[in-house]
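Lab meeting, item 3. Inverse folding demo.
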């Protein structure tokens, strides 16, 4: 077993292969029991060794027969890349831009090689018909002499909240020819001002619930000031009915549900987001999601349904401490803005008029899984006409403290469906499904022929023992299991919604009879970043290394955070892990929206003296130069790979504050130094030829 000890480790558990990428002095390559250990310092040597045909194996597939399946799923993922040529903030059609000066990007092909742009002309209109007349009432840039075609900053009238804007661009080529206008594109704005929010935070928790100091959890295992907190692991459900009497032109729904939420409108799920909202320091910033619900609202009675999970907000007491603080009981805020065809508007908000009850999810934890009792389902609870007279009134609760901001990065979604390769009965009544590859997410299990009250347990693991029994040891203290209690009616299908696992194998117990392999399918869950590049060569081992690397990277893009693992009770945004994989990620995926969100997490967590943490986002005072340096280096990478100057502008002052903090830390290694008078680094030594400060890295 390789331990994280003064080394940087990325764990890749794919198939029966483990790629351990380790920075340390020992340059070794070890092949043992189908486990592949590769150090960065040895990777070039490995490539040289296996570069010649037959040097390593005549046919890599004979060693790794599941390579074709991995290639298949990888190829399917590559096809998800959008073909849009017009982008706003890297998004083809953003639903809620919440910055005053969004940036425009275009990719135009005049139809011949060697062309270049010598000028551009952008127009932005508040009405599609006006844009079609080539009129820009919001912004008309005029002809701008420039070859810039990426991230051109908006320069028009002040944008309004919750509005739809249309835009297009034309360019002049190197020969002076002005090309035709592009097709129309659009972007929407979010709720740009605090006063735009008319809704209340609501939940089932007490209105006067204690507010924990989330910065005080690091380095502690007991919390006497929170002894009175009784953690409730259940998921509450909420409903509200409203009537629409006119034809709708446009409707947008804005919601932030903590820790996680599931949203339905008239019995149908709204959007594809899962494990949402993304993780932040909720005392500083809370991300809201935006949905276009124009087609889901009907003329007449409508019902909104919300289910809340615990997520990173209402963590179990046993995980309080360095992993996660306790922010409070689950709560949410929601607002629907409706525009009618006659020009009038109305608003539906979360407030004390909502009703609440407990749902069938009796336990949920990001690390330990979910328990679902189908007998507790309340059929029709989120459609009109349901009798909610036995439900409770909701409580208006306090805001968690953070400012509301639009989630402009890619949300978590089910990206791929993974079919099992086998199922075996390893013991009487114990079945193990092999999904054929390791990934993050969960399984969807179809159940039939089970009596009401039958409890089925699903346990997840990355490996198995020689006898086929699952080996969950890589999960450490995380339980990684889901429980489902059957209602005993027809075919039941279960998949969790408020947890996720890292796994290849699933153990099923409690099932009466023998499940079919077709009854289970894996749901590969991660942030819905799109592919930006691909790789293929003539050597199957190198192809396998690439597939495993990309699969591991995708599995660790979770809820707006580049995590260190998917199965242990950790899953944190360690700076060093993200730094060492950043350039690989940028070559394989479109990462700027995702990383931009994470850099903002750094700034949210920065202390007045400039210190930034090494696990982001996580409240509390901690710093380690080797790991915290990701905040200095990764914005530069984003500039290099994407030409993103705004990421430097946005983070520059915070990076300087961190550098100023470092200048006041450490020990002098030669002699006391003369202090300088630099206005920023007021205590920085002035002798640049001398070595700098000594810094200690804990890991």
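The presenter then showed the designed sequence:
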């Amino acid at each position: 077993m390789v331990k994280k000890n003064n080394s940087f480790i990325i764990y890749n558990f794919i198939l029966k292969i483990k790629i351990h990428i380790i920075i340390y002095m020992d340059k070794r390559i070890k092949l043992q029991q189908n486990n592949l250990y590769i150090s960065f310092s040895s990777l070039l040597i490995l490539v040289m060794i296996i570069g010649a045909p037959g040097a390593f194996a005549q046919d890599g597939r004979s060693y790794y027969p599941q390579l074709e399946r991995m290639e298949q799923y990888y190829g399917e993922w590559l096809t998800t890349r959008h073909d849009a040529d017009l982008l706003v903030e890297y998004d083809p059609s953003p639903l809620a831009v919440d910055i005053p000066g969004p940036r425009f990007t275009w990719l135009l092909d005049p139809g011949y090689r060697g062309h270049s742009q010598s000028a551009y002309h952008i127009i932005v209109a508040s009405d599609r018909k006006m844009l079609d007349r080539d009129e820009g009432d919001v912004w008309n840039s005029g002809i701008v002499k420039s070859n810039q075609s990426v991230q051109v900053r908006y320069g028009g009238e002040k944008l309004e909240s919750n509005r739809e804007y249309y835009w297009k661009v034309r360019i002049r080529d190197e020969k002076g020819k002005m090309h035709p206008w592009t097709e129309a594109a659009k972007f929407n704005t979010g709720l740009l001002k605090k006063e735009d929010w008319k809704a209340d935070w609501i939940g089932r928790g007490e209105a006067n619930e204690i507010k924990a100091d989330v910065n005080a959890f690091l380095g502690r295992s007991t919390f006497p000031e929170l002894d009175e907190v009784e953690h409730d692991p259940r998921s509450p459900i909420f409903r509200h009915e409203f009537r629409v009497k006119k034809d709708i032109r446009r409707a947008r729904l804005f919601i932030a549900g903590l820790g996680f939420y599931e949203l339905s409108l008239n019995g149908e799920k709204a959007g594809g987001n899962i494990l949402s909202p993304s993780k932040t320091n909720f005392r500083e910033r809370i991300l809201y999601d935006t949905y276009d619900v124009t087609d889901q609202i009907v003329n007449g009675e409508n019902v909104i349904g919300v289910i809340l999970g615990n997520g990173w907000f209402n963590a179990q007491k046993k995980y309080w401490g360095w992993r996660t603080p306790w922010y409070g009981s689950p709560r949410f805020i929601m607002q629907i803005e409706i525009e009618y065809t006659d020009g009038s508007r109305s608003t539906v908000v979360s407030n004390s008029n909502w009703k609440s009850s407990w749902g069938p999810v009796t336990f949920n934890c990001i690390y330990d899984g979910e328990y679902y009792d189908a007998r507790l389902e309340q059929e029709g609870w989120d459609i009109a006409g349901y009798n909610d007279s036995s439900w409770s009134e909701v409580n208006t609760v306090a805001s968690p403290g953070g400012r509301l901001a639009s989630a402009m990065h890619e949300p978590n979604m089910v990206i791929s469906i993974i079919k099992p390769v086998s199922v075996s009965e390893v013991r009487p009544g114990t079945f193990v499904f092999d999904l054929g590859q390791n990934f993050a997410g969960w399984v969807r299990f179809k159940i039939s022929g089970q009596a009401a009250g039958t409890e089925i347990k699903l346990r997840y693991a990355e490996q198995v023992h020689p006898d086929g029994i699952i080996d969950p040891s890589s999960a450490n203290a995380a339980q990684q299991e889901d429980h489902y209690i059957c209602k005993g009616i027809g075919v039941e299908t279960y998949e969790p919604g408020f947890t996720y696992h890292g796994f290849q194998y699933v153990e099923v117990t409690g099932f009466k009879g023998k499940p079919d392999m077709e009854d289970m399918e894996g749901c590969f869950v991660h942030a819905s970043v799109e592919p930006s590049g691909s790789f293929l060569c003539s050597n199957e081992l190198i192809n396998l290394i690439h597939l495993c690397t990309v699969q591991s990277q995708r599995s660790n893009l979770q809820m707006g955070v580049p995590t260190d693992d998917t199965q242990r009770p950790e899953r944190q945004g360690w700076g060093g892990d993200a730094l060492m994989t950043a350039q690989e990620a940028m070559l394989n995926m479109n990462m700027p929206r995702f990383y931009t969100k994470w850099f903002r997490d750094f700034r949210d967590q920065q202390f007045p003296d400039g210190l930034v943490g090494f696990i982001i986002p996580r409240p509390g005072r901690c710093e380690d130069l080797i790991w915290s340096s990701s905040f200095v280096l990764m914005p530069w990478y984003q500039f290099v790979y994407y030409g993103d100057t705004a990421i430097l502008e946005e983070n520059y002052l915070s990076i300087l504050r961190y550098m100023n903090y470092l200048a006041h830390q450490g020990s002098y290694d030669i002699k006391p130094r003369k202090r300088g008078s630099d206005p920023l680094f007021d205590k920085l030594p002035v002798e640049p030829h001398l070595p700098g400060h000594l810094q200690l890295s804990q890991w």
